[in-house]
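Worked example 2:
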Amino acid sequence: MSTVVPPSAAPLPPASGAWREGDPAGRRRWYVREEPLRLEAGGELPGVRIAFETWGTLAPDRSNAVLVLHALTGDSHAAGAAGPGHPTPGWWDGLVGPGRALDTDRLFVVAPNVLGGCQGSTGPSSLRADGRRWGGAFPHLTLRDQVMAELGLADELGVERWALVIGGSMGGMRALEWAVARPERTEALLLLATTAAASAEQIAWTSVQLHAIRADPDWRGGDYHDADRGPHTGLSLARRLAHVTYRSEAEL
């Protein structure tokens, strides 16, 4: 006989799903930027780290590098099994690997966790110089800021020009920014379910989602990472609203 656990008795998820220092690294590697990153909206961000994963081997002439940019809720684990440091399998596991669409027998595939993404890259869950988490004090970032951080990663890896930059949704927006900001380093783009600019309607829906998160008492002004509970109710409502805006009628 099965037992149904009432919602009030179900164990709560952690306040944040962010990767933290001391957690298993998994396949992650890190690029550490030596100088502060100047931000498009003003100010700068010190201590920038970008978590990334790679598959395949960079060719001697460095002509086979492919940059894979994840969507809003993704991370650097584009391919591979679940395990320590990676609670779920790679989100593009069927596309990245030997003989697959992104054939790692021929291509050098790089997938970074976006700046601000908190899955190993610097973000609100990261520690500041004073030992406290950034939380709600984390500065406003733009897509250009995120691409500038990824540019440093490319330099570190010795990639002078990407043979292909591929991304979906927010990752596609960053791919477009690569082509705009550094066209000499971007040979080709593959864009999926993305846009060059947000419409007024998209901005309006996003505003409602942000309000849902901030109205959750457990939001705590963004300083919830070390609390017993995070803004799960607000995040859940925001995600439901988001699905209404980009899922087709058949899916809904």
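Strands lie at 29-32, 37-38, 44-45, 49-55, 65-69, 96-97, 102-103, 108-112, 164-168, 189-192. The first strand starts at residue 29 and ends at 32.
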